[in-house]
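Give me structure tokens for this 372-residue protein.
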Amino acid sequence: MPSSLKGIERFFERGGDGQTLPFKLSALFSSYGYKKYRMSRFEEYSLYAENFDFLAGSNVITFGGEGGKLLALRPDVTLSIAKNSKATKENGEKVYYHESVYRLSRGNLGYEEIDQMGVENIGEVDLLAIAEQAELILKSLALFSGEYSLDVSHSGLVHGMVSQLGLSAEAKAKVYECIKRKSVHAFAELMEREGADQDAAAKVRRMIELSGPIDEVLPELGALIMGEEAADAYVQLMALSHEAARMEGGDRLRLDLSVFNHLDYYNGVMFNGYIRECPKAVIVGGEYDKLLEKMGKNVQALGFAINLGAAPAIHRGVADIALLYDESDNVYEVLEQANKLREKGKSVIVSKTRVPAVKTYAYTDGTLQEVK
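Here you go.
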């Protein structure tokens, strides 16, 4: 801990011990009434075996426990929270977590530990709950980066539109894959082979193509809607768009119907959050009432998970500045330069070799020169 008052202030402004992003996210979640949730690293393997589709194909690391039970290193947090939740529609639970999840790496040559934070709102999910969570995701993304966007979709709209095509379960599964990949050409070929109604197929095809700022895309999407299920979902998206217009960062909300997960678990809005520094979604979430229903619980649920490993280097505990030196430099002068930077609230690593840092300077001829 720093010894001076100003040093202590800077320590907590930075999040304490370099954990800037987790600290700020925890404070954000707590300000919305979410309580910290802690859990064991292990669960009985049966929980994951029974809900393997929910894990989106993630491999599970298993080992033998006491009494012959097969245990697993936790590959997912939501399943554990859902299993242990005592929430009802009258008395809901709002929790957040900061945990590691464990998954086998590609080729099963080892396992990786993924640093993850997230929130779960279990109880009743209405428009306010959905809008609040969209706002929470936007604020979380803003802590990651100045350049971010939030893609939203709705499983009811996708499922409702595809149902109007009158296809077999096998053909529907292929349509969902076309939507996920935004493959209009493959969809058109499939519709021709299946002999689907041309008007319905044309509307679904246009739905696949549509994406962009939600307030701009929804009017055209409205002209394509078929069936009561899709219509109900569309109304919900319209309401969310209206609320988002009043939110800070609400102009970053985009509609993209290729965003959806397993329809046996997810039944409502779905979110993918992106930042410029990472090609993949850093935040993934949605409404998953069907998972709770499968567990015999008469409640609704909405949540999202954040991959902290995708945070830019400035948020991952690296130093603000690396100060390079060599044997010819005056030791006192190098240390003095480093301390001057620290007095400005910067974390500084003094090193002979390049180390991870937001910026790198070399001490040359009594001056600091930035190294690109």
